[in-house]
Amino acid sequence: MEPRVSIITLGVQDLERSYQFYSKLGFPSSKNPEEGIIFFKTGGVCLALYPLDALAKDVSPDMAVVKEGFGGVTLAHNTRSKQEVDDVLALAVSAGAKLEKPAQDVFWGGYSGYFSDPDGYLWEVAYADFWQFNQDGSLVIE
After folding, report:
1. Global pTM?
2. Distance between CA atoms of 89 and 33, rounded to whole angstroms?
3. 69-142: what fold?
4. VOC domain spans which residues (predicted)?
5. Sign of the CA dihedral with 4 first, then 78, 33, and 17 last
6. Phi then psi dihedrals of residue 81, to 5 deg
7. Which CA distances in Å does 16 have to 11, 115, 142?
8. How close are the terminal C-alpha atoms of the chain, in Å?
9. Under 8 Å between Cβ of 18 and 97
């Protein structure tokens, strides 16, 4: 298997609400919500929104939807400055996110905070002066 992730699909309760939320964050979409799935273009990985019940059934007809507490997964948006972390968190809150953890200096040498989207998916917004980015905005990992 090639070591890459192509699409991250979030199962959502209300496709239109989630579409509006991510659009307000500035994510450009390539599909309309009327088509039943929405794809957002991001630097290197596609973010998709799909109805939660339908996504569970796609995995298996017997798959139960469990959405309680911390699910063990976070998504991350890495920035080029501390100010950008603060700006992105403020933008997310203004778009309807819940601020879970205000931005602060963290143990690994960076600066980060967390918000949750309308379906409770957790996003870390983080900066570290030792990170580098490709031209498309993707993080350089060496």
Report:
1. 0.88
2. 25
3. 2,3-Dihydroxybiphenyl 1,2-Dioxygenase; domain 1 (3.10.180)
4. 4-128
5. positive
6. -160, 160
7. 12, 20, 38
8. 20
9. no
Do 136 and 44 contact (CB within 8 A), yes or no? yes
Domain ranges of the chain: 1-66, 69-142
Which tokens belong to 23?
A: 């659009």
Confidence of residue 45 (pLDDT cuts 50, 70, 90): confident
Q: Dihedral sign, CA of 57, 12, 64, 5?
A: positive
What span, in angstroms and rounded, lies between the C-alpha atoms of 25 and 60?
A: 32
- What does pLDDT average to over the chain? 91
- Going from the C-alpha of 2 to that of each of 5, 6, 43, 60, the distances in angstroms are 9, 11, 18, 25
Query: Quick check: do 1-66 and 69-142 share a fold?
Result: yes
Q: For residue 55, which of 8, 97, 22, 20 has the smallest C-alpha distance?
A: 8
Four-way CATH pick for 1-66: 1.10.10.10, 2.30.30.520, 3.40.50.2300, 3.10.180.10: 3.10.180.10
When pLDDT is averaged across residues 23-48 and rounded to a whole number, the result is: 86
